[in-house]
Amino acid sequence: MKRFEDNNWKESMRIRFDFNNMMSDMLGEEWGISKAQITALEQQIKAANEKLNHKRKIGKTQWRELPYTQEEVVKDILATADGVRQKFECFVLLGIGGSALGPIAVHQALNHLHYNEIPREKRGGPRFYVVDNVDPERMQALFDIIDVKSTVFNVVTKSGNTSETMAQFLIVRDMLKEVIGDNYRDHIIATTDMEKGNLIQIAREEGFKTFYIPAGVGGRFSELSPVGLLPAAVCGIDIEELLAGAAYMDELCSQEDVFKNPAYMAAVLQYIAMEQGKNISVMMPYADSLKYMADWYAQLWAESLGKKVDLDGNEVYVGQTPVKALGVTDQHSQIQLYTEGPFDKVITFLTVGKYRNEVHIPKAYEKMSGVSFLGGHTMNQLIQAEQMATEYALYKAKRMNRTIMLPEVNAFTIGQLLYMLEVETAFVAELLNINAFDQPGVEEGKIATYALMGRPGYERKKAELDSRPEKKAEYII
Ligand code: PA5
Description:
The chain is an alpha/beta fold. The chain has 19 helices and 12 strands. The strands form 3 sheets. A 5-stranded mixed sheet has the order 1-12-11-7-10, sandwiched between helices. It has a 5-stranded parallel sheet with strand order 3-2-4-5-6, with helices on both faces. It has a two-stranded antiparallel sheet with strand order 8-9. It is globular. It binds 5-phosphoarabinonic acid (PA5). 5-phosphoarabinonic acid binds near residues 98, 162 and 439. 5-phosphoarabinonic acid binds near residues 96, 97, 159, 219 and 303.
């Protein structure tokens, strides 16, 4: 029996959402949100819930079904991961945006913090790298430290067309062909759409092992699909537990009553906060393991909610700017601004009840009270005290803050966290009457890149670019 099949264990691993410091009971009428403000939104919340449920029913939000629909896929992933672990020294993911940030976040959360540096027998699998940029120095740096003969490359792109990922693929394929010859195809795994895009066509023609990203699962909502599950399984993460955590959160988020539904409540609070001018959403985990959850969240929040028009075509220009911070590190960098700067932020702490290690601080320098008070405590106590102290300082300064509490960082709690933040994002979008699942704002830049790189069919765009106003030398100093 797996531990997530035990209801007591599951309940003990339930993540909790503490929103005390968002409320006027704590911050005062002027700075907090009252219960009456939340209940006044009852009709809007009901309508948003109905719309979201309808989308789910008609299959428009397939990401919500990922915890339930992948039994066969999981088997295939586990078998493939097993083979990869036996055959390869390095696993390199080529992808960008939603095809990279989830795998990075989950790897950081659930694997050893120095995973690649520890000996192979202590690692869950091969060394793991994600290349989510087209910086030539980074690409070359990777080739300097891996041996392509013992490396498998997972090319991940939902659209199958993303220039950055396809450029990386072309480079890697060429190198593999040169070094390995015809067997290069055994070193490439494609994760992409089943029908659309160039990668699936190439994969079929060249015979790559392929995993599919289901329709209705957009990039930033795809971590629980093969996009995230394959790299996680390769590195020894229990992907069944990850999915079980997501399913558990789905259960918790199925209640219409916002006071019982953590994702809905989180969304409603952000929606009201945005109406009150809180244009910035800071995510501040107090754990290095959760550091890249903030990166993953930043993309989810920014691309889903930063929109010019609503679903009725009105210009709305909505969205909250996500900011990543790390406790305690950024207490010495950003907290000054958060406590004394403009009242334009909501800070979300991610806290951990029980860290995977306990480190004792030895007693010393008894006569030096400024140092000796630390001795006899643990680092665990110190980091938790600092989080509490920061939360208190923000509360005192009347700054909205809230905490998502993870009893432990494990696959089950990470599954919950991912799912909760996805549902929160989708629910805010319903409240704002915008489309969470498109990203028209990134198109112009993409098309301009095609034009600059000489892609056929983009000649007019190239001419448009060439006729842009010339930059003035006086403004470049
Ligand atoms: O969330 C999204 O849809 C985007 O950020 C994509 O993930 C990103 O643009 C990469 O796209 P693709 O997976 O098609 O290569």
